[in-house]
Structure formats: C-alpha cells, structure tokens
Design a protein that fits this description.
The complex is a heterodimer of chains A (271) and B (620). Helices cover 34% and strands 8% of the residues of chain A. Chain A is built from seven helices and eight strands, in the order H-E-H-E-H-E-H-E-E-E-H-E-E-H-H. In chain A, the strands form two sheets. Chain A has a six-stranded mixed β-sheet with strand order 3-2-1-4-6-5, with helices on one face. Chain B contains 16 helices and 28 strands. Classes of the chains: A alpha/beta (271), B alpha/beta (620).
Chain lengths: 271, 620
Amino acid sequence: MARILLKMDDLDALEAQSVFILREAFNKFDPIGLLWSLGKDSCVMIWLAKKAFLGRMPFPAIHLDTGKEFPEAYAFRDTFSKEWNLDLIADDCPPIEAVDASLPPASRFAARKSLGLQQAVDRYGFKALITGIRRDEQATRAKERVFSPRSVDNSWDFRGQPPEFWDQYNTEFPPGTHVRVHPLLHWTEVDIWRYIERENIPMVPLYYAKNGQRFRSLGEIGITEPIESNATTIAEIITELEATRDPERAGRAMDHETEDSFERLRTMGYL
Amino acid sequence: MSANNTARERAFPIVIVGHIDHGKSTLIGRMLHDTNSLPTGKVKELQSSCERRGAPFEWSFVLDALQLERDQAITVDSTQIWFHTENRRYVIIDAPGHREFLRNMVTGAASADAGVIVIDAKQGVSEQTRRHAYLLHLIGVPQVVVAINKMDLVDYAENRFKTVEAEMQAYLQEVGLTAQAMIPVVAMHGDNLAKRSENMPWYAGPTVSDELDTFPRPTATVERPFRLPVQDVYRQNGRRLIVGRVESGQLQIGTEVSVWPTRRSAKVVSIERWASPDTATEIQAGQSVAITLDDELFIERGHVLTLPAAGPRSSNALSVKLFWLSSDRLRHGESLTLKLATAEYEVVVDSIDTVIDVEDLSRHRGHEVQQNGVAEITLRSRSDITYDLFHDIPALGRAVLLDGYNLVGGCIIQGGGDIETASRNLTAVPQSVTTDERETANGYPGAVLWMSGLSGAGKSTLAMALQRELFNRKINVYTLDGDNVRNRLNRDLGFSEEEREENIRRVAEVAKLFADSGTIVISAFIAPTNSARAQAREIIGDQFHEVFISADMSVCESRDVKGLYAKARLGEINDFTGISSPWEPPESPDLEVNTGELSLDDSLEKMISYVEQSILKSAN
C-alpha cells in the first residue's frame, strides 16, 4: 500500500504540543480561564485554543484591565473578542495604592496586574489559569513547569517545584492551590512570529513599525518603550529577530529596575 | 510565500548532567558565548554585577540567573536555553547536579534527545556521575557524549584523561550505554567546546559541538503500531469527537480501529480540524487530533485506539524498572496511582524484586527503595492495564507514580507481572468432588490450625500431641512443621524478611490444598509478623484458625531446646526472631495458649476443646 508520509515541521510540532497541553488543562480543571494580555503570545494562545477545541474556546478570556493599555490595544480587544467569539472578563485591577510600596515604581505599577489576577481567582474561583509565558523570554521564566502550582497567596515556590516529565503534568493539588498552565513555554519569540505568519493571526498594529519604531513587547503606557525598527511586515519582523541579539523585554521597565525586581514580581505572583 | 515561512528543523534538545561542581553550567555559559548565542550585554551585565559583589565572574552566572542560585552557587532547577552551531539549533537543558535535586534532573533530562555528561578530570567519576548516567539510560536518552572537564587543573595530561575515560567507559558499558565520544575540555576557557584546544595536541577527536552536530534525531515512531491514547471526548453539534495525541504509527480515514480495554471496534469517519489548510486523510505520530467514528462506542479518557491487528498488551500486573524520587521509602504493599499515557490506575506494590545499586550496579533483594534509588518491582492493579513495552513504544511503555498529590517516581515497563502472565495462560479445572461433599463424607470440614509463637514456645510439641490425639479419633490430620518444610520444599529460601514472607506464602498455599482435600492441618511456624499471618489468612480464607502459642521470651530462652537462643546471643545466628529480627505477637488470635503458665496436658486440653467447638461441631 502506498503511504503518504507527512512530515511534521517545527511549527506543526509546537502547535501539536500546545494543543495537547490545552486539552489536558481543560480536562483536569474546572473552572479554568485564559489570561489575555492582548499581546502577541496570548493571541497565539487563543488561536491554539480554537484549534484544540475545534473553533470555540470553551472558557473565558480574562483581560486584567489597568485602564492604561494603549488605545490600539483596547480597539483590538473590542474587535476580536467579538470576532473570535470570546467569553470576555475584563474587570478593573485594584488601584496602585493597594500595591506594596517598597517595589520600584515600574514594578509597582506592573504589580497591579498581580492583584487583578488574585482578584479574578477570588471572584470566579478559577482552579487554573492559562498564561502565555515562554522560557526564552526571561531567565526566571526558564525555570517554569508547564503546569505550575501557586499557593493560596498566589506565590511561586520555584525551589520546591514538583517533578514534571514525559508530558505527565501535575494535576492533583491540595485545596487552595491554583495552577498556572503554560502552553507556550517551549516556544521562542521567532516561533511565535513564524506561526502568526503561517496562520495569519491578527495582531495589535503597534507591533509593526511606524516612523522607525515598533513595540517588540507590549505592555502598558508609561512602562513600555518601543524599539528602533523598520519592520512593517511579519516577514520583516522575523528577519529582524533572527539577526538581533537584544533581549525581547528590553523595553519593559520593571525587568531592569533592580537586579532581582522581575524575580520578586514573579514570586509574588506576576506572570 | 516568504523565505521565513519554510519549515525549520526543531531545536535539538540536549541535557547537560554530572556531579555538582564538575562544571556543567560553566560549560553551557561558555558554549553560548563561543557560538555567539548570547543576548548583547548579557556578559557585561553579569560582569558588572560580579564587580559590585566583589566576586570573580563565572560563566555559570549566565544560566544561574536567579538570585538564590548566585548566593548558594548551585543550580536549583533545570533551565532551558537556546544556542546554535552553524549546522543546527539546540535547546540545552541544564540539570542540577546536587543530589537532592535529582527530581529536577529527571524533569530536564526526560525531554532530551542527547546528553552531555560532564566529569571533573581531577575528581574523576563520582557517585552522581554514575547516577546521572544510569538515569539517562533508564529514561531513554539514546546518545551521550562525555566531556572530561578542567583539564587545566591536571596540566592537560593525557594520562589522567585516559584514566577517567577508561573508568567511565567501563561503567557505561555495563549499563548498556555507549558514549559517542569522550572529549577533554576546559569549559572555563572554551578548550574543545566549539573551538579546538591548542593545549592538548595529543587529542585528535572532535570538539563537543562537532560531536553534537553528528547526533541523528531519534527515529520517528510513525513506522510503529498505531496508538492513540484518548485525552477527552467532546460533543459538538450532536457528534462525538475523540481527541488525543497520536503517540505512534499512522492511520487513514476509513480504517477500522480497536478500543482498549473494551476491545470494541469502529471505523474512522473523519478527521476534524479548525482553520487548517491541511486536508490530509491521514493522521500520524506527534499530531494532536480530533476524529469521529461510525459507531457510538463507549469511549472515555484513558482508553487507547489501535489497529485491530497490532493491539497493545494488557495485564493487571506490571513488571517495571522504577526510579524513586520521594523522600519516603517505597515499601511492598504500598498503594499508588499509576499514570500511563492518559490513563490512571490504582496500583499496589506487589513485590520489590530487585534493588539496583547504581554505584557498582550490583543487584540484590531488598524490601524497600530509598529516595533516588532504582529497583525492579511488580505493580498490581484491580483492573487490566493497557500498555506496551518501553522498548517497543516508549510513550505507552512508561508511566509516573503518584502518592496522593505528589509525583513520587517514574517507571519503564519491562513486562506483565510474572504471576499474572503465568496465570493468564492457565485455566483452573473445577474439582469433580466439591469441598462440601468432602465435608459431608468426613463429618467435619478441612481446616488449618495456624500456630505461631517464638522458638521454644512449644509449637512443635503441642502440634505433635494434638495430631496424635486427632488421629486416634480417626480424623484426617497432618502437621506442617517449619523445619521439615524448610529442609525440603523451601530449601532455596533464607531468613531475610522477604524470604520469610515467601516461606509463609508457600506454606499457606500448601496448607490450603490439604484443607481443601478435607484434612485438618496443623501448621507450626514462627510467622513473626502480622503481615505474614495476614497473608496466610488471605490465602487460606475461612478455613484459617489462628492459634497463638504464647510464652514469655524468658521462658522460651530458658527452655532453649535446640540451643538456638544461646547461639543467637553469641551472634552466631543472624535474623533470629525475638533477638535480632522482629517479633510481632498476633493481635487477635482465635485461640491463645500460654505454655508458660499451662502444663503440656492442660495446653493440649485447651486446643482439643477449641477443635471440637470450632471445627468438628461446625460440620453441617
């Protein structure tokens, strides 16, 4: 019998792995939600969820709204929450006054999201939250598990992480634990853009260069800076990224305030 | 289509393992630098951070980015980082060498296609080097290269390299792992990592990166039998979509599939996709798929779809090779959850068959497995487990073990449990004379009087007296005596805890056969533990009568008919019950006879009256 041997390429393999993770999470945790930052990674993740569940994402997309997103980002949210038929939760994050005042300014600002996340967990009782972090973004994220438990106070015990291998994710936890699920952990920044290109996934326009500048990593107004770039198309972005040796989050202020500021944010529950 | 849209090869995953301080992180940091894979400013950032701390810069800081790690100077968790040679991209998994972090080493290594074992040339092969090498082999990392590091500390001496090389080669050979290359390196200065060293002209072999570039990717599992473990079943528009990842093989629309363990079949009607230009009528290993079938079979998570002609194995007992990660020791009889592909089974540790010392690779019997230990054990489940052998189809031939919330170990499947496989091929022929008929004919039921007590308590004496008395009453009676059985049937067994349990198991089985034949069996064994007696009770069932021949240790020792206590006290006998091996008195025996207080006649009288009341009069 003649057989057509399909050869899976690297994007096929990444997609298959992420779909597998999303299906595991949906099977094991109820209620579950997906954190939608409006950025490229979480948009890719929604796309993957639609692949995993055949066109309909069967859980809410949660936008932790600080009121400080760029107008283009809000416009994108309003358009695509409808277009993608999302069950959107977009509650306001607690005010800056509620955040630990000992943090440096940008980290303190960013920590509003951590409180917003805690608020969502408390308000809706989520057992698990799907987030779009990747190992190549930042050194502390490289330590993450695919299914990563958080204690009652939302903190991350990176020293005592459970073993995780052979795609057997930890799904049994004591009451009060909530789990972060990371379907994109094994992707790189270039992988993300190549997948966006292949799948033709809509993105916030701020990622594409205008007047010699574009956002490589998208955060909020005031704590996110654009980079010098002339990349106006996905193909140009990929070419740019394959040549660059600058870190992706160079434009995110809270990563660089003090040596351990991002690590402190993460142990406190930041993504 | 842009040039960027062409398929790229996936990054090749490699894991770096070895003893703490042998230089794994340094090797990675330097390798990243030498292959131009580091972000701009990273080295400068770390160098200035070191200056602020007044500490010398080290290449390992590139990876050990967490505050804690710099302060304690050990890699706590596995870290992933990408680098590239001219030929391909790699993702390196740095695994911690510290013993207490073995779980993280396994977490990292399990996803690698190749391993680099780093050994300090001065220190040589250490315990953790061996443990890591053994685990690489066990979890199925197929190819390794050995980097013998810090050659500068041994004056780049070829002799020293040869010594360490020979030592490691010997170990790997015995494990069954072949190192593709052994390379002398100085990670700190980059010698023989990506660039050839000028300090070791006597070495003509490849550099580490040259060698890695030659490693082939593991062969795809497409050519192996089809396996689709069911992840979930979704209902959509009145249809049932079976979803899961194809772990091996391939399949076309229209093919008939079998469902395990139900062994029902149906045809694949469609392959479902969303927003995909892919119209292939075939699915294959590695894909996460959704399919529909032509029949509404009962299918749920944990079931496995296969082709009818090439099904998986099925057994309720598995013989596995285990690596144990929990700080609590694993013991025989423990209940755990086995997660195999998408299925979960409640299992009991039926036996710990062999404990393997990864240091010298010796194998010995044992009754527990310590943290980070390796052992061959048998697991038993109440339901049938669908599986394959690890070397046939890895994804269906390996599993993790959970104790409550915690993942406590991993195992690879070597076969169905011996007991189970053997008995699966046997069919018990029903007896043509039933137990009831025998009881009616004899006027009394078969029974086992299970006497236990310390050596010297008077078990044998009482057993023989009781046997004579019952025989005189024309009752079929037979005594199984410890020493007699050990000289014949059980002469292959010693006196370790496990062998004692096996001794009792066999005696119980023999006693049951006698009892089934209508005989009253008197057994006189020390049977020192509650678990041994519980096992005997389980085997024999309702016909089991527990008789405790109680006498104080001091009484038994003063009698010392066989002179054994004296020898045990002198240390001439090991594992002597009550002295150098534990004695657990029965908790609720059916009859207790205290031979320390009663005379032989009175003791006998008490036993006869029990037999009359509880066995002879119970006849229907």
